[in-house]
Design brief:
This protein has two domains: 40 residues, no CATH class; 176 residues, Lysozyme, CATH 1.10.530.10. By secondary structure, it is mostly helical. The protein is 64% helix and 2% strand. Helix 3 packs across helix 9, helix 7 packs across helix 8 and helix 8 packs across helix 9. It contains nine helices and two strands. It has a two-stranded antiparallel ribbon.
């Protein structure tokens, strides 16, 4: 047998071996239903925390987030803080973003540094203050990214400001100053040297007034729907 014939035979054998070897079919081991189901759960979880599309219109907001009105009414009944006031404070603090945090600072534009505070969630409550709330109320499982828990927290804090500082729970301007500075800071008058903070508090009060006017127009329907549930 010539060298050419030998090489040709060896080549044919190698080809046969290659054909008999099949690469593993990764698709055959996948479970499309499982992965689609996982993606659907993630999508639904994301939708559950999407901020309202019309945060400046309280009626539209409650229509979109149909369980928020019930939670706000519950906080009002428990702590005496009007729905428009608690919602105005929450709008200012987090823009109704469930997992909101203070913006992180960066070194040299690309090295992440620590955040300025531990504020988190709808209410932007600090770690220590949230722990005090859970211990004081017995709501040990309360979470800052839960709307109902956050509304209740704002009501609890407003009641403390009323008790310790004499601020009416209906006074959105002063309630926000105390919320931002803490009861101790407010008592010391820390806000007096912060013109920007007083401007923000006036903005919160204006939002509460607007929310109150809007709620007057849709409250009967909301109450009727709530009663039917």
């Amino acid at each position: 047998m010539s060298a050419g014939s030998s090489l040709s035979r060896m080549f044919r054998i190698d080809v046969i071996r290659m054909k008999s070897y099949s690469l593993p079919n990764h698709r055959s081991d996948q479970r499309p239903g499982f992965f689609w189901g996982l993606l659907m759960l993630l999508w639904l979880g994301g939708c559950a925390s999407v901020p309202p599309s019309q945060p400046s219109n309280l009626c539209a907001l409650f229509e979109e987030k149909d369980d928020w009105y019930e939670a706000s009414i519950a906080a009002q009944k428990t702590w005496g803080i009007p729905v428009p006031v608690q919602m105005a404070i929450m709008k200012q603090e987090s823009a109704f973003v469930a997992d909101a945090r203070p913006p992180r600072k960066w070194f040299l534009g690309f090295i992440p540094l620590s955040r300025p505070s531990s504020a988190y969630g709808y209410s932007q409550a600090l770690d220590g203050t949230w722990d005090r709330y859970r211990e004081s109320t017995g709501h040990t499982g309360a979470e800052r990214d839960d709307f109902a828990d956050s509304a209740d927290f704002i009501g609890w804090y407003a009641r403390m400001s009323q008790t310790e500082l004499g601020i009416s729970t209906s006074d959105a301007y002063r309630q926000y100053l105390a919320y931002h500075e803490g009861q101790g800071g407010y008592a010391r008058g820390s806000y007096l040297k912060k013109a920007w903070l007083q401007d923000v508090a006036r903005k919160v009060a204006g939002t509460a007034d607007r929310y109150e006017r809007q709620l007057d127009g849709c409250k009967p329907d909301l109450d009727e729907e709530l009663a039917s549930n």
